[in-house]
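New to this. Please check this protein:
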Amino acid sequence: MTTYEEFIQQNEDRDGVRLTWNVWPSSRIEASRLVVPLACLYQPLKERPDLPPIQYEPVLCTRSNCRAILNPLCQVDYRAKLWVCNFCFQRNPFPPQYAAISEQHQPAELIPGFSTIEYTITRAPTMPPVFIFLVDTCMDEDELDALKDSLQMSLP
């Protein structure tokens, strides 16, 4: 990689995730000044043959209104067996099965190359799955009208 653009492109190609911005706005004022809205294009069926199968539950943030998942961008204190959520900054203890965690012995969630992980959950989910149907409306008015018409015809 020689440029920042190549770095971003390499990560997008690897993970199947593309964001409209490479940083989050740090305040409401910054967010209100965005010309292009903050958005994410995610490819949930992207093939990643280099990822190991993850056969255990994800480690979640303990704050009830956050519930973010442990990831390579979290701060980790290996001696205290704690991690800091990079969304809400909550300090979270590692579960007992992570007792042997160290800088040399990290779970897949903390390895930078595994920024996208697919978990295989073995227990029954507590909530039904959620599906989001998203339509990019940055198009000509004629195209948008045609899309609206096709959606109305396909609905029962």
About this structure: The longest helix spans residues 141-154. The beta strands are 17-19, 40-42, 75-77, 82-84, 91-93.
